[in-house]
Amino acid sequence: MKIIIAGAYAIGTHLARLLSRSKEDITLIDDSEERLASIGSDYDLLTMLGQPTSLKILQNADIQDADLFIAVTPLESKNITSCILAKKLGAKRTVAKVDNPEYMDQQAQDFFRELGIDKLIYPEMLAAVDINNGLKMSWVRQRWDVHDGALIMLGIKLRETCEILNKPLKDISGPNDPYHVVAIKRGSETIIPGGYDELKLYDLAYFMTTRNYIPYIRKIVGKEHYVDVKNVMVMGGGRTAVRAVKKMPEYMETKIIEIDEHRCEYLNDILDDRKTLIIHGDGRDIPLLTEEGIRSTQAFVALTGNAETNILACLTAKRLGVRKTVAAVENVDYVSMAESLDIGTIINKKAIAASYIYQMMLDADVMNVRFLMSANADVAEFIAKEDSKVTKKPVKDLGMPIGVTIGGLVRKGEGMLVSGHTQIEPGDSVMVFCHNINMKKIEKYFI
């Protein structure tokens, strides 16, 4: 597949590196030699110096042969313009990063599709959804709802109170049990488990279940003593914070600590319809945090542009008694460190955005793709097509590669877990988990 990426910034370089490992034909366009050089020579891709809004540059990049054109520069107008040009010049599909929440309305997206932009992504809005999913359940590191909650994936850190430690999964998670453990992160190791694997203390375990069994999962992992989040303190008042606060449930009361006085005034204007208090100050200032009630706050969310600041602030909040912390960590090198320090939920906008873009590469009917950065695993929702390989045999006889497991499926709106004897039917939405496997090797089972 030929893919052209415009913008050698955070999302563009992350995506280029990710896709180059999958042996895709990648061209990265940027107007800065320094940024292009920073991606290094270890990746199999072509770099091109120039503006993605230049017809000559696009033509030199063989835009007419492009299967996918991705515009992720910091300038929304440049992304939109370059996608329109790319489509007119022959690119099969286009995706543009935008900063305006108004453009994410369905009517606006239909309008942009007519202009030649197949998909719009707003990373801050995507991150806000992940933040709120983490806050709604204080005992969960990560939550992902499939088909409006027909199936639910929960990433949970296992502590001493967990009832199901040190037991083979075949004894605690059989075909008739209401959950499956689909992935385990243990230290730096990721495990797609089999029946003889066991859950260990401090594992980050990913459970697939249905909505009505969430209380049962909470009980067996020993998290019933975790209080629900009602008071949230946010450090940093950027776009991600605004989108997250706007999406928070009505019962949550929020305080935003912002160091820039002018930004505080702006936040007061746009968040005046919510129960949100804007505080001018430094979120690392312990006396300020204490004065503003950090000890009676159930969640602390650090969303400044500096990963180190966010990690340190979350460590401070934990020391002051906050149980639930969320940190924006844009530097991938810091993610494993944040995990080792037991920070809590880690938000990485470029990984979230890359996941949404990645699904456009797949030929199968794919509803969602997510990269579980904490577990270094991918999860995708495939639609089984008529006469596809996956519908021919029970799951145990499909010959799926090592490192792949099917966690569950949705059939006619009803979520159900999958065992080795399950027969997948055409039209089923199937949740597939992969570790160290190219997703394109899995899609052949579904087309």
TrEMBL record:
The keyword Ribonucleoprotein does not apply. It comes from the Bacteria. InterPro entries: K_uptake_TrkA (IPR006036), NAD(P)-bd_dom_sf (IPR036291), RCK_C (IPR006037), RCK_C_sf (IPR036721), RCK_N (IPR003148), Trk_Ktr_HKT_K-transport (IPR050721). Residues 141-223, 367-447 form the RCK C-terminal domain. Keywords: Ion transport, NAD, Potassium, Potassium transport, Transport. Gene3D superfamilies: NAD(P)-binding Rossmann-like Domain (3.40.50.720), Regulator of K+ conductance, C-terminal domain (3.30.70.1450). Residues 1-121, 229-347 form the RCK N-terminal domain. Pfam families: TrkA_C, TrkA_N. GO terms for cellular component: plasma membrane. One of its GO terms (molecular function) is potassium ion transmembrane transporter activity. NCBIfam families: PRK09496.2-6 (NF007038), PRK09496.3-2 (NF007039). This is Trk system potassium uptake protein TrkA. The lineage of its organism: Bacteria, Pseudomonadati, Bacteroidota, Bacteroidia, Bacteroidales.
